[in-house]
Structures are given as structure tokens and as C-alpha cells.
Amino acid sequence: MLKDSVPHKTRGTARKGLFISFEGPDGSGKTTQARLLAERLMDSGLKVVLTREPGGTPVGEEIRKLLLNPDFSEMTVACEALLYGASRAQLISTLIYPALKRGEIVISDRYLDSSLVYQGLAGGEDPAKIIGINFWATGKLLPEITFLLDLEAEQGLARIQKKNSVSGAGPRVNDRIEQRGLDFHRRVQEGFLQLASRDRKRFFVVPAEDKPETIQAKIWDKMQKILKQRNMLPPDPR
Ligand code: TYD
Questions:
Q1: DSSP 55
Q2: Does pTM surpass 0.85?
């Protein structure tokens, strides 16, 4: 069933632009890498839209507050899945799809694989249901490439704790998802690797314990190949 979890037939929809997602466990450094890639692409003269999930739109950012609020420990996984799907539906129709139609590059810090993993494989909700919600929410639009930053759960959580404790404003309260235990975060890491092993064409797995510059170099190398295939490399200024 998982084998069919990814809507292959829609890969390449909105062909004019290029849709890229970053995935990985909490603390894996996706946000930094998504930003570095966006900056590098823009420096090359390409038009880039950088967004994040949950959020990325005014409506989505409000949904994000609900989802990450540590006071709502009673929130069910089904409720979570629907809220993530709702935020995604808004993001797709008002930001991602229009940008792809204009021929731009869209980079999303998390996308539907996160729901499949956090609410499905790690969260215990039926993956088929998560897929159903997300097919509806996204019109089955999938990224052309997904960079998966792979990191052991222990290391990811340790990085988050460190980041929180060095913040000058005193310790930040972990968000609702970060507060889950180590077992949950282990299932998250395994879940992502499981998805990647089932779709080697879309996923590019990068070990995330390396230095940010090393990770960036691997991502940029892959990215250049894709841009070349897609004839999106800007003309050489020389
Ligand atoms: P965020 O602070 O953005 O964490 P990160 O930098 O690790 O992305 O919070 C997003 C949290 O929401 C993160 O713990 C993963 C979780 N999440 C889901 O559970 N399902 C989803 O579909 C998405 C997009 C995120």
C-alpha cells in the first residue's frame, strides 16, 4: 500500500516551474539548507519562492499557531492531519501553484511527506487516509525533487535543546510536536527513510550530521544536474 502512497502520475505537473521540498526530522537543519539553496539559486539569477509548512500564507500561519501550541496536548492525530492538510491546500492554491505556472522555482520547507510520516507512519493514523486528504488538498501535486536530511532522533532533539537553551530570551518552550518522546522521533526518522527507499527517483538523501557547508555542496551538486536537465541554467555571463 505504501508503494502506491506517492502519486507518481502527477509528477511533473506544473512543468514550467520547478517544485522542490526539504524534509527531515526535527533539528535536521532543513530550514537552513532550504534558505541557502534559495539564496544560491537567486544569486544565479533564477526566480525563487521560499515557503514553509505548516504556514506560508496568512491563513496557514494561523493554522500553524494552533498546530504547534503546546497547550493543545489533547489534539487528536486526525485533527492534526486535517489541519496540516488545510494549511497545505491554501498554500498550494494561493502560492505554490501560481508560482510554478509562472515558471518559478518553489522551495518548500516540509510538504506532504511530513504528514505521511508524522501523522501516518509515526503517528499511527492510516497512511491511506493521510494520502486521501492530501491528494484532495494538493490536486496531487508532488515535488520534482525532495531533499531528505537524515539525522538520528537523539541528535536532532539534542540540537533543538541546545538551540533553545542558548537563546538569549531564556529557554523557549518546545512546540507540541517537539515535546513528543524519543520513540516517536525515531519512528519519524525511519518513516522518512522508508518513503525515500520507495521513491529513489524523487528523494535525495543527505546525511545531516555533516557541517552545513558540506551538506550544501551536496545539495548544490544535485541541483545543478536537475537545472541542466530542465534547461533552467541561466546563461553563462562570460
Ligand atoms: P517547525 O518549528 O517548523 O519544525 P521544523 O523546523 O522541524 O520543520 O514545526 C513544524 C512541526 O510540524 C515539525 O515538528 C513537524 C510537524 N509537521 C507534521 O507533524 N506534519 C506535517 O504535515 C508538517 C508539514 C509538519
A1: -
A2: yes
